[in-house]
Write a structure and sequence with these properties.
Layout lengths: L3 H7 L3 H6 L47 H7 L4 H9 L17 E2 L5 E5 L4 H6 L6 H12 L8 E5 L13 H18 L3 E5 L1 H8 L5 H4 L4 E3 L2 E6 L2 H4 L3 H20 L9
Parallel strand pairs: 2-3, 2-4, 4-6
Antiparallel strand pairs: 1-3, 5-6
Helix pairs in contact: 1-6, 3-7, 4-7
């Protein structure tokens, strides 16, 4: 059984806490199920991605969404929604995809993590976060006593891979909006963790800096949202990994306030 310190080591945070002369005040339950690693993936470089194609103050909610399509999707069950996603041609991203990446995890689930969009490996395998950034996300989840497929669902703002792993445009996010909205309704999360700026904008409508969004509870409809960095961005920055760990602990405290921590396995 791997220890809490093992997960901190995998996150490259163990030495940081030891140098500070302390360990994290919050530790996770001792029974942690380890998620197998997936080998090999050419990860997108978070710092090299083109900027979100939108004016600084714009939000996805300002983009026109086909009301008839949105109304139809809003009544779908899980199987119908998966089929709709697999066949979707609502934006140009469908033209070069190998497959739409619907999402993975428990449904319903108390925790929902929303990222940006599929990369090359995700497009191949049909599951979000299976590359290097996905392994980092799994390590963060495990260190917090969580696991995809158990009390966590993982999805993306867009379901098809953007060319060159670029950031999705607001129009592309809007085309996928009814699909993600219905996913969230069916998953019934107690709390959503928005991974990166694209997810923050889509879920909260705010284009404020990540520094301004972190450490506060925001809202997607009536569901609390906690903002943190995308795992692809964290791969290059130890300092930001520590901030992301703080965000995860903040999210756990917020979940505990709602009496549905998703940590009953300890």
């Amino acid at each position: 059984m791997r220890t809490f310190e093992d997960f901190l080591q995998e996150l490259e945070l163990l030495d940081t806490f030891q140098q500070l002369g302390r360990m994290p005040d919050e530790k996770v339950p001792s029974a942690i199920v380890v998620v197998p690693k997936v080998a090999g993936h050419e990860e997108r470089a978070g710092n090299n991605r083109p900027p979100l194609q939108a004016a600084k103050t714009a939000a996805v909610t300002s983009i026109t969404i086909d009301p008839a399509r949105a109304a139809r999707i809003a009544t779908m069950d899980w199987a119908e929604l998966k089929a709709e996603t697999a066949a979707c041609t609502a934006c140009g991203l469908c033209k070069q995809r190998k497959q739409a990446v619907f999402g993975v995890g428990a449904a319903p689930a108390p925790w929902l993590f929303v990222g940006e969009g599929p990369g090359a490996e995700e497009d191949e395998q049909g599951e979000p976060f299976v590359g290097q950034a996905g392994r980092l996300l799994d390590a963060v989840l495990a260190a917090a006593g969580l696991q995809r497929g158990r009390e966590v669902y993982i999805a993306n703002v867009v379901k098809c891979r953007p060319p060159g792993n670029r950031t999705p445009t607001l129009e592309e996010a809007a085309a996928c909006a009814p699909l993600l909205d219905r996913q969230i309704e069916l998953i019934q999360p107690k709390l959503i963790v928005a991974l990166g700026k694209t997810a923050v904008i889509r879920l909260t409508g705010s284009d404020a800096s990540m520094a301004a969004m972190r450490g506060s509870v925001h809202r997607y409809r009536d569901v609390p949202v906690v903002a943190t960095y995308h795992p692809a961005y964290l791969l290059r920055s130890l300092t930001e990994k520590l901030k992301a760990w703080e965000d995860m602990m903040f999210a756990r405290r917020e979940m505990a306030k709602r009496g549905a921590s998703g940590l009953e396995n300890g």
